[in-house]
Specification:
Layout lengths: L1 H20 L8 E4 L6 H9 L4 E4 L2 H10 L5 E4 L8 H7 L2 E5 L2 H10 L7 E7 L15 H9 L4 E8 L7 H21 L5 E3 L6 H6 L4 E4 L1 H4 L5
Parallel strand pairs: 1-8, 2-3, 3-4, 4-5, 5-6, 6-7
Helix pairs in contact: 4-5
Length: 227
């Protein structure tokens, strides 16, 4: 597991350097490990190193880990969510980063147990207008945000996006800047919004430059995937 510890230290240094260049406090950026395809053993080692939150894309895979690891872990669902699978998200996850339609708001609000804190929700924005990606268009953010804000068992926390991988640096910077502007506008309407989730292994510096407060890292955190 020395490689994992080395990867984490390397990422922390990258985040610190990027924050320095952007005149930001390094504590203003949260590093979320994306643990899809990773073993329970690997996650347990991360927990031993102090990590208490993980991002998962696939519900069936996540269920195995959730049942095996401590209840104190906060799980983020960051993949496309089918309506018929919303109950488990509502009952066992702390965050949904991929909200993209009003129907899910109603289901999640009804299904979130009263004894739990409200489910933290990020609206996923399809900033690249990629037909292969989930998310709402920019013009629909406000409407969906209003739905979430009215749901007692949900807490609107901000926005998330996944950009296309084949963009130039300039194109990606433009999309990140547009997301930053959309997030600022959302904060003006809902001051409780504090999370702009964007940036992954290959573009975390650019995302931090444009206001990302949470970056989702998989391969540069855990190393190359086994499959």
């Amino acid at each position: 597991m020395q490689a994992l510890e080395h990867n984490i230290q390397s990422l922390k240094q990258r985040i610190k350097s990027a924050c320095n260049l952007a005149n930001r406090d390094e504590d203003s950026v949260y590093l979320l490990p994306v643990s899809k395809t990773r073993s329970i053993f690997e996650l347990q080692h991360c927990i031993d190193l102090g990590f208490k939150q993980f991002g998962e894309n696939y519900l069936n895979e996540a269920k195995v880990k959730i049942e095996a690891l401590p209840e104190s872990i906060e799980w983020h669902f960051i993949g496309p969510l089918q309506s018929n699978k919303s109950r488990y998200i509502a009952e066992r996850f702390s965050w949904l980063q991929s909200l993209d339609r009003a129907k899910l708001v109603t289901r999640l609000n009804t299904q979130r147990p009263a004894e739990l804190p409200p489910l933290n929700v990020l609206i996923q924005v399809n900033i690249s207008q990629d037909p292969n990606k989930s998310g709402v268009e920019l013009k629909h953010i406000t409407t969906l945000a209003a739905e979430v804000a009215q749901a007692e068992r949900l807490s609107l926390r901000g926005l998330m996006t996944i950009t296309q991988q084949d963009l130039t640096t300039e194109q990606k910077a433009a999309e990140f800047q547009t997301m930053q502007q959309a997030f600022t506008q959302l904060q003006q309407l809902y001051p409780s919004c504090d999370t702009l989730s964007m940036g992954m292994s290959g573009d975390l510096e650019l995302a931090i430059q444009h206001g990302a407060s949470m970056i989702r890292i998989g391969s540069d955190f855990f190393g190359p995937r086994n499959n």
